[in-house]
Amino acid sequence: MFDDILIKKIKKLKEEKNAIILAHCYQRAEIDEVADFVGDSLQLSRLAADTDADIIVFAGVYFMAETAKILSPNKKVLMPRIEAGCRMADMVDLEQIKEFKSLYPDLPLVCYVNSSAEVKSEADICCTSANAVQVVKSLNCPKVLFAPDKYLGTYVSSQIKDVEVITYPGYCPTHIAITVEDVDKMKNEHPEAKVLVHPECNQNVTAMADFVGSTTAIMKYAKNSEHKEFIIVTEKGVVDRLTRDYKDKKFYLVSQRAVCPNMKLNTLQDIFDTLSQESNEVFVEAQIAENARKSIERMIAVN
C-alpha cells in the first residue's frame, strides 16, 4: 500500500514538472513502476539525448547520470542517491587514462561508458556492452586501446580476430565474482537450461555461454527463445525482470553474489524525495562535457 501511494505521488510529480525517469535494468524491479524507460546503457544514452523533458531523474549509477547531462546539457539531471557510484569507473581517473594513452601514442582509445566524464573526454569514441564489437570495427584500425574493462575488451578481441585490443586493467567486481564453478553448479542442477552471459565476465565464464550479450540482449534472447529454462549470468535485476515478465519460463540466477550494491541503493522513496525537492543535481564541467559528448555521439552514430 505504501508503495502504491508513493508511485501515484511520483507519477503526479513527473507530470507537474515535465520530468522523466530513466532506470537501468539492474535497479530494483519496483522502480519500473515509475520509470518512463528501462534499459541498458546504450538505450538510456539515446533516450537522454532525445528527450524533451525539463528534468531527467536517473535511477542508476553516477556515470549514467553524467552521460545524460552531457547529452542534455540544458536539462536538469537528478540522481536519487548521488553516492551511487560504479566500482569499475572508479578504477581509472583522468591522469591514469592519460598515462595509459601515453604508453601507446597514436592508437585510438575506445572508452566503455562505465567511466567518468573526464575519462570519456580523453576517448576517441565510447561504447557499451551492446555495441562494443561494432564500435571497434568501425575504427578500421589494426590496434586499439580499450578502457576501463579488460574483460569486455578481451571479449571484443575474441570476436574480431584481425584487431589487437590493448586493454586497461579495470573490471566489474560483480561480474568477476561469478566463477566457472558457479556456472557448472547451475548447469548440473538445470541441465536443460541455456546459459546467457554478460561480456563483463571472465573469459572462462563467457566460454561456457550459449549466448553472450548486454543486459537487454540477454533479455531479448530469453523472450524470443523457444527454450523454457535459462541460467542468467549477470546482475540479479535481469533475473527479477525476466521472472516477472515471462511467467511461462524459468530463470536461475547464477550466483547470489551477482548483485551490484550500488545499483540497489535507489528506492522509490529516494526518487520521490529527489524529484519533489529537485535535489542531487548532476553537473559536468563545460570543456569536459564538450569533449566527452563528441566521443558519445560518435558511438551513437555507429548504430
Describe this structure in words.
The chain has three domains: 106 residues, Rossmann fold; 98 residues, NadA-like (Rossmann fold), CATH 3.40.50.10800; 76 residues, Rossmann fold, CATH 3.40.50.10800. The chain is 44% helix and 16% strand. The protein has 14 helices and twelve strands. A four-stranded parallel sheet has the order 2-1-3-4, sandwiched between helices. A four-stranded parallel sheet has the order 6-5-7-8. Helix 12 links the parallel strand 11 and strand 12. Helix 1 runs parallel beside helix 13, helix 2 packs parallel to helix 3 and helix 3 packs across helix 14. The N and C termini lie far apart (42 Å). The mean pLDDT is 95.
Set down the secondary structure blueprint.
Elements: H1 2-17, E1 19-24, E2 37-39, H2 41-50, E3 55-59, H3 62-71, E4 76-78, H4 94-102, E5 109-112, H5 117-120, E6 125-127, H6 132-139, E7 143-147, H7 150-159, E8 164-167, H8 173-176, H9 180-189, E9 194-197, H10 203-206, E10 211-212, H11 215-224, E11 229-233, H12 236-245, E12 250-253, H13 268-277, H14 286-302
Parallel strand pairs: 1-2, 1-3, 3-4, 5-6, 5-7, 7-8, 9-10, 9-11, 11-12
Question: What's the helix count?
Answer: 14
Structural class: alpha/beta
Strand content: 15-25%
Total strand count, please? 12
Q: How would you summarize this macromolecular structure in one to three sentences?
A:
The chain has 303 residues and is of the alpha/beta class. Helix content is 44%, strand content 16%. The protein has helices spanning 2-17, 41-50, 62-71, 94-102, 117-120, 132-139, 150-159, 173-176, 180-189, 203-206, 215-224, 236-245, 268-277, 286-302; strands spanning 19-24, 37-39, 55-59, 76-78, 109-112, 125-127, 143-147, 164-167, 194-197, 211-212, 229-233, 250-253.
